[in-house]
Amino acid sequence: MDSTRHRRPDAERFWERHYRTRRTWGTRVNPLLAEIAAPLRSGTALDLGCGAGGDAIWLARQGWHVTAVDISTTAVERVRERARDLGVADQVATEQHDLARSFPSGEFDLVSALYFHTPFPLLRSRVLRTAARALRPDGLLLIVDHGSTAPWSWNQDPDIHYPTPHEIAAELDLDPAHWSVARADTPRRLATGPAGETATVIDNVLLVRRSAG
Ligand SMILES: C[S@@+](CC[C@H](N)C(=O)[O-])C[C@H]1O[C@@H](n2cnc3c(N)ncnc32)[C@H](O)[C@@H]1O
């Protein structure tokens, strides 16, 4: 029997361990997702790298039908449990994917990728291009990345470069006839870490709209 068939890739093992050892962090909505999605008419949403599901559950409670995707089985199971406990199970579909290998099917009015970072190699721009193609006409792709190092960040490398929203847009290389940049900026906010500590951090925000026609 081929023993490698059942071996879990490093990225999946890493994120499994992460969610098995952290029970509560990440269950709140990200402020930028709330700010951007609150004025929208609810529809179908896809949350890439949903983690503990703070964004997916918030969207469901605003009336969205959400597909929440993560590489960690524990994360998606927790999102499913929380959706059930909060009475929004019929609005939250959970799928386990390594997005480097597979992508959920469907079309979406909103695709969110909040802090979709990983210490493992990932052709993120390829995943995000696929996400842009999964948008319905007039749909939005929201990418929020770290733009600064928080005291609790796993990577404290002082030379780290955080790609700017314009650099990320350039990497996506989307056809301007079909997609346009609706927002690209770097707001600051007061963030809370896993032990309750606070610090001012920068977010790199890119919002892409698929054209209506
Ligand atoms: C930094 S966390 C952000 C989680 C959540 N979006 C949030 O804002 O709290 C990155 C998430 O991406 C997921 N992830 C990392 N690599 C992935 C991959 N290849 N496919 C799917 N999910 C992945 C991780 O399991 C983790 O939940």
From TrEMBL:
On whether Transferase is a keyword of this UniProt record, the answer is yes
Task: Provide the E.C. number(s) assigned to this enzyme.
Answer: 2.1.1.222, 2.1.1.64
InterPro entries xrefs: Methyltransf_25, Methyltransf_Superfamily, SAM-dependent_MTases_sf
GO process terms (BP): methylation
The protein's enzyme class: transferase
| Keywords associated with the record | Methyltransferase, Transferase
Give the protein name, as stated in the record: Class I SAM-dependent methyltransferase
Ribosomal protein as a keyword of this entry, yes or no, is no
* GO MF assignments: 2-polyprenyl-6-hydroxyphenol methylase activity; 3-demethylubiquinol 3-O-methyltransferase activity
| Residue ranges constituting the Methyltransferase domain according to the UniProt record | 46-139
